[in-house]
Amino acid sequence: MEFLPTDRLMDLDRQHVWHPYAPMPNPRPTFPVRSAQGVYLELETGERLVDGMSSWWTCIHGYNHPQLNQAALDQMGRMSHVMFGGLTHQPAVQLAHKLVELTPAPLQHVFFCDSGSVAVEVAMKMAIQYWYNQGQPQKQHFLTIRNGYHGDTFAAMAVCDPVNGMHHLFRNSLVEQYFADAPQIPFEGDWQEADIASFAAILETHHQDLAAAIFEPVVQGAGGMRFYSPQYVKRARELCDQYGVLLILDEIATGFGRTGKRFACDYASVAPDLMCVGKALTGGFMSLAATLATTEISQTFAQGEAGVFMHGPTFMANPLACAVALASLDILDSGDWVGQVHRIEAQLRQELAPCQDFSAVQDVRVLGAIGVVELHQPVDMAVVQPQFVQQGVWLRPFGRLIYTMPPYTIEPDQLRRITEAIVTVTRQDPG
User: Would 24 be classed as within a structural domain?
Assistant: First the structure.
């Protein structure tokens, strides 16, 4: 590969590359990365930035981790890819077994996917086909909660917030689903049954048409970085059982330790019927996700009309991705991720607290290795993004939120650079 001069690189980028959530051509500042090591991103211009985003919450071990690199090299020496239809291989089988060990006990079967959005699509298709197999084809719809986010593909978009979410422009093209009021009781708040009244009312009225309820447990991610009571998750499980509706938990952003538990549903001691995982599954090395199902669900497919589950991604269970995911989970198992996340949480609480006194700030909240400063007004990205880069950190605010989800391996002095940058920018009113 030819390495281009920075000016030429950026000129071609502006001409041809369509970045996520960006216009084309893109007038917003874009920063070229030359390499990444540990918690640092090195730009083509020479600056080193402390990464506060874990590359959209995936690189929990930091970058260029030697164990992940070695796992990839070892697997490439055997095979980088092979189709999964009619074939199987060591990395996929071992990873499936590992995921079954780590997730709640009723989840026994693993369907590998390419990305988090696809894992959600798969879970929704599984729920619909399950009820079809059970002789209840009318159960085709889904119940979710407002302020949620589940991905950018069509079924996933249909269960994202239809008004305030990123996908409201597509509302008339999506299947209409049922939306309960978003939980309001905070993570450590005193439970009140009224908080789940809307969810319960929809179940009571529409359970005969509902295939499943789907939501992000405890933490709503890209829909607003909201933390809510685990009791809501517990009661939702009970209500789904009461009304004969499946429960899908989207743990794509929260799985593998980000909230301080291995999975966010562990705070509620709840097991879903279907669970979606992704993002940190490979430690950010490459894309991989999975949908896990109970035996109760999976065993109905052989007796159904199709006889199989009607889905099959081309790159399903990519051996390279599975091998790296196994290495990533081994790093978690052999390390002190619990201590790392708790240390990050304590430092974020202490060092982001001053933001609460600034006029531009509406709220400051922290859970696990997630720190959020919510503003009264939307962030001006054209101004704020370069300010963070100038202070030597990489953060990617959106809407009214400035937040950080750093790698678990970040050191206190490195995290302090992030929190100091957030304090500096929010003090200046970034709206």
Answer: no
Per the residue annotation, which of 40, 178, 279, 403 is the catalytic one? 279
List CB contacts of 371: < 8 A, sequence separation 6 or more. 348, 352, 365, 403, 404, 405, 419, 422
How far, in Å, CA of 116 to CA of 276, rounded? 7
The pLDDT tens digits for 182-241 are: 999 999 999 999 999 999 999 999 999 999 999 999 999 999 999 999 999 999 999 999
| 26 domain residue, yes or no | no
Cα–Cα distances (Å) from 339 to 21, 96, 179, 259, in that order, read 35, 26, 37, 12
Parts of the chain with a pLDDT under 50: none
pLDDT for 278: 98
Is residue 12 a part of any domain in this protein? no
Domain CATH code at residue 204: 3.40.640.10
By the 8 A CB rule, do 150 and 250 touch? yes
Q: Which amino acid is at 54?
A: S
Calpha distance 149→255 (Å, rounded): 15
Can you tell me which residue has the tokens 């407002």?
146
The pLDDT value given to residue 26: 83
pLDDT of residue 28: 82
Q: What is the pTM of this model?
A: 0.97
Catalytic residue among 51, 114, 250, 273: 250
Could you list the residue range(s) of the whole structural domain that residue 216 is in? Answer: 69-334
Identified catalytic residue from 40, 130, 132, 149: 149
Q: Is 21 a catalytic residue?
A: yes
Examine the residue annotation and report whether 149 is marked as an active-site residue of this protein. yes
Amino acid letter, residue 29: P
Annotated active-site residue 98? The verdict is: no
Specify the pLDDT at position 431. 63
| Nearest-angstrom CA–CA distance, 228 and 402 | 19
Any catalytic annotation for residue 267? no
